Amino acid sequence: PPSAPAGATSTPAGPAGSLSGWLGGGTTFPDRALVLTAPAGGTLTTSSVHVSENGGLVANTTVTPLSHAATGDLATMLVIDQSQSMAGAPLAAAMRAARSFADARSAQQEVGLITFDSAPSVLLAPSSDRGSIATVMSANPWAGKGANVPAAVGVALQELGRAQVALGAIIVISDGGGSLTSGRGPTPASVQKAAAVAHVPIFTVGVQDSAGPASLTALRDASPGEFVSSSLDGLPAVLHRIAATLDRGYVVRYRSQQPAGRKVSVDVTAAGFSGSLALSYEAPAPPAQPRPAS
User: Fold this and answer.
1) Could you report the per-residue pLDDT of 134-145, keeping only the tens digit for each?
2) Most buried among 13, 88, 271, 277, using CB within 10 Å?
3) 151 and 157 in contact (C-beta within 8 Å)?
4) Distance (Å, rounded) from C-alpha 82 to C-alpha 88?
């Protein structure tokens, strides 16, 4: 299933000082997950967060900060350009930054790796196994031709869907020097739409040292999500800032008591924060019962 349930909708929290969030992925009804973000400086705990479904208070919720993610809470796909313009120092710096990012994560946060030229290659599906991660990231990939950013991001979205996590994120590292074409694959707009539906944030880091302004502009246009530029030396710090942004979130888990096949309205409040967060989803219909033998 996708990272967010089909038919899920959300109403943004309104005033400053209120919660924001959405329905998390990686669950099978009646198990539910929410991804919440508190305003800057705010903290959420199991005792402070209150969840209601169709007006009834939900019991036995758990609240886990993503900085100490549990299994199935968070996975990040690192998507690294291996086109000819990234050969040598840029690609080596990108891989060093990837290793630094992986080393700094908490034990159960998952990380995966895709490299791409004209086509993406999945080198590591999302994993929290330190040995597997270290082995895959120990070597620098070869340099190829082309740089199909939308196709690589599209494959990263697929990998996150298969990972069954509450929150997935994508970080792209590229200098924009390759041929940034979508070819027969997805367009930037279609990838952006798919990521929005799945509530997957995408961060594109443009490497300055080996690219001119025109290349970075082309990269920004070809890349969905948030864009930031960086020097080669600054890549680890940029990735750690992105990780810190993700770590500010929380995953709320609980078991719904609503009947199958019903539309469910979810209301979330937290002590110390104004307003409430309104979400909704369609509880899946019960499976069809086999006909009795005649």
Assistant:
1) 999 999 999 888
2) 277
3) no
4) 10
Q: Are strands 249-255 and 226-230 parallel, antiparallel or unpaired?
A: unpaired
| Pairing outcome for strands 263-270 and 49-53 | antiparallel
Give the span between the Cα atoms of 248 and 277, in whole angstroms: 17
List the strands of the sheet with 202-207, edge to edge: 120-127, 110-116, 74-81, 167-174, 202-207, 226-230
> Distance between CA 264 and CA 113 in Å, rounded?
36
| Spatial CB neighbours of 205, under 8 Å, sequence gap ≥ 6 | 171, 172, 173, 174, 228, 229, 230, 235, 238, 239
Displacement of CA 52 from its chain's centroid (Å): 26
Cα separation values, 273 from 14, 60, 217, 224, Å? 11, 21, 40, 32
Question: Quick check: bond before 150 cis, omega within 30?
Answer: no
Those residues whose C-beta lies under 8 Å from the C-beta of residue 64, and which sit 6 or more positions away, are 70, 73, 250, 251, 253
By C-alpha distance, which of 211, 111, 88 is closest to 160? Answer: 111
The tens digit of pLDDT for each residue in 79-110 reads 999 999 899 999 999 999 999 999 999 999 99
Say how many C-beta atoms besides its own lie within 10 A of residue 142's C-beta.
Answer: 10
The neighbour count for residue 160, using CB atoms within 10 Å, is 28
pTM for this model (two decimals):
0.88
